[in-house]
Each structure stands twice: as structure tokens, then as C-alpha cells.
Amino acid sequence: MVETGKNNQRLLRAGGVYNTAKKNYEGDSLVFEGDRILAVGNFDDLRKRYPGSCIEDLENCYLLPGLVNTHVHLELEAVPNTLEFYLGEDGYANFLRAAKHAELMLRSGVTTLRDAGSSWRLLSLNDPGLKGTIKLPRMQLSGPPLTITGGHCYFFGGEVDTEDELVRAVRERHKRGCGALKIMASGGQLTPGTLPERESYSSRLIAAAVQEAHHLGMTSLAHCLTTASMVNALKGGVKCIEHAACFVRNKKNKLLERVYEEKIMEEFRGDGRWFMNGISNNYHVLDKARENRCAATEKELFLLEQEERECGIFGKYVELGFRPVIGTDAGTGLTYFDETWLECAILAERCGMNPVEIIEAATINGAECLGMADETGKIEAGFCADIVVLGEDPLKNIRALKNPVKVICRGENV
Fold first, then answer.
1. How far apart are CA 131 and CA 402, in angstroms?
2. For residue 4, is pLDDT > 80?
């Protein structure tokens, strides 16, 4: 039910409004005007304080801060042959596809995202001229990731090797409007010719780039598939570790195996930096084997075992004091842009996180990681009106995130 008001203020009445500080619901309503939240509280009180507001009755729904996904690749497509598809696509078609991916994420409840590696053309998504032509979430773009010559994702155009080249590349990204610096600290699985179990940059070289990025007000993140690359990134001052996979090459089957090196990681106990696991990345590849819809091959059984290890290692990082954020690596392999909820569900169902911890990781943690904690991630007076309306209580069932009833981003209905 909507009751038309006499001003531009909107009063939403629901079953509960999530309070980040209290880790529960407090009040049943909120008022916002333009893109700013004015107040949160009880309906009768807010109706008196803000007479003439347009009232929207959302009955028994729950209002949460908009979700933050800290790691996606908008230019890529969630298909088995991701790289071949990307390299064979026309640039104009790719840009339109990226815009549609961003819109899809917004409709799924993600009001803020970070693109963790792209070509330069993606930066045009932040062009003010696009406003009104397509609905987009708030975006922090990192542009072409820094990678060694021939390194992981070199096809984006970010090959740099020396300290001077790294610093110059950071300055160029800042000049072009990147809000984050992405560093490939190891090889990767998407790029032929690179080895995921091999480190790329030393901690000294990483530090040179990161110090310049932080000096310019940019956040930093590093792709780390080995323990050594993670150590290099941490010692180099990177703010957020991506994947934290601790891969080694299994000598028998030659597949990548996760091996947590406790003695090495103990050095970083209490560190408190951010990390993104992306457990849902390529999760659908093993759906049939995981759900016993077919006889699993020897390789699939090994990969399913690695999933279990990944969930266990996630808990070890949290126990050390690293803070989780929600990132999915959407666009790589069979990792879809509207499934941020799946990452949250896996963390609840397989990693032992409770709903409050997951909501925190998916909202305020992500906002802090991106340097946006004063703007979004909470439903409080003065914050941006980024709101996800859910028909079911996610504190009781985290999968409620899958089907938003409504999404509001910067005060506008999606």
C-alpha cells in the first residue's frame, strides 16, 4: 500500500529495520529524502515527525543495508570458456554487456560493487552521462590489474615489472579515475601460460605500488593463490587479500591442492585486514557431483575435497583475526552476477558463520574495505538510502537474500 504525500520524503514501514550496531532489528520504519536517510524508528513517531511524507507499507518485510560485493569482473561472462568468449567479443558489445551485468547485480540486491580487473573502457561506466539511461549500483573500478609481463590477466593491458613502472602505473590509474589498485601477486587459472602456484611480485615491489596508491587515496587488493604471495601482499601493505587460496601442485594428479601453512600464517595473528575467499566461484561446475546426480569422477571427488578444505581454511583465517568480506569473482567460469546470495549461503551452511556475521561481511565490512564506511553499509540517519527489502527474515534463513522484494539504491527504486 502506498499513500501519496505532499513532499519528497518517503516513509517506509516494514516488519523490522536492521541495526548494524545492535546486530538486530530496531524500529519498523525509516524516512529518507533524495539519497539520504533522515531517521529510523517506529512508524507512528516518524509519521508525526515527518508529516506529508509518501508512505509505503511493506507489511512484514525486513529492511537491510544494500549488499556490497567487493570482487566481480563485469566485462567477463559466466560461461565455461570465459577468456575465449571475452577475447572474441567486440569492445562495444562488451561494454554493453558489462553495463547489463552491473544492472543485474543491482536488481539482485548489490547496491555497491568493486570491479577487480578490467580493460580501460569499463571506466566509462562511471560517466555521469549514463545517469538516467540505465540503473547502476555504486561502483569502485580498478581498471587493468598490475601484472608481470605475461602474468595473470595480462590481456587487460596492465603489464609492469620494475618499481618505477609500478609507481607510474598507479599514478595513471588514479589519473583515469580508478578507485582501487589491483595487484596480481601470483599466477592465475584463467590465463594460459601462468602458474597459479607461482608468485609474481616481491613484497618490496608490492609495497612500492601500494604506498603510492594509498598516498593517492586509492584502496588496494591483491590476487593471491599461494601462501607466499599472500605473505608478500601482506608485507607489502595490501588492504584486502583476494582468494587466499594457499595452493600447491599435487604431485600425483597434478591438480591444485589447498595446503594451509599454519606456522607461516601465525605471524599475522591479529592482523585485522580484509580477505575475500569467493567460495562460490565456479561452484556450479560441481553441482551434479555434489548433489549425487551422477557418478563423480576421480577429479571431481578431489575437487569436492578441496571445497571442504577451503571452508575449513576460511575458518582458520577468521580465527587468526582477518576480517571477511563478500566477493564472488562473478564473470569467471560459471559464477553468475546475481548470486551474491550464494556466497552468503555457503558461508552459513558450510563455513559455520552465523547470519549476523554474514550480514556484517556483506554490508559494513565491505563498505569499510572499499573506503565507503561513511557513505553506505548501514541504515542510519545521514547514510545513503541503499536498502534491500526482503520478504523473509535473513537472521532465520540467510537464503532470504536470494529474492529481494525491492531494492533501493541512492534513494531510487531499482
1. 27
2. no
In this predicted structure, the answer to whether residue 7 has a pLDDT above a threshold of 90 is no
Give the Cα separation of 11 and 33 in Å (integer). Answer: 9
Q: Is beta strand 67-72 parallel, antiparallel or unpaired with respect to 110-115? A: parallel
Contact between 295 and 244 (Cβ < 8 Å): no
Give the span between the Cα atoms of 170 and 207, in whole angstroms. 12
C-alpha atoms less than 13 angstroms from C-alpha of 141 in its C-beta half-sphere: 26
Q: Is the dihedral of CA 258, 362, 69, 350 positive or negative?
A: positive
pLDDT digits (tens, 9 = 90+) for 211-243: 999 999 999 999 999 999 999 999 999 999 999
CA 266 distance to own-chain centroid: 26
Query: 3-class SS at 319?
Result: helix
CB of 294 within 8 A of CB of 288?
A: yes
**Cβ-contact 116, 152 below 8 angstroms:** no
pTM for the full predicted model: 0.96
Query: What phi and psi, each to the nearest 5 degrees, are found at residue 358?
Result: -70, -45
- Confidence band (pLDDT; 50, 70, 90) for 179? very high
For residue 359, count other CB atoms closer than 10 A to its CB. 24
Distance CA 175, CA 172 (A): 5
pLDDT digits (tens, 9 = 90+) for 113-138: 999 999 999 999 999 888 778 999 99
Identify the burial level of 310 via C-beta atoms within 10 angstroms of its C-beta, where 0-12 means exposed, 13-18 middle and 19 or more buried. buried
Give SS3 for 375: coil
Question: What domains, with CATH codes, occur in the chain?
Answer: 2-65+376-413 (2.30.40.10), 67-369 (3.20.20.140)
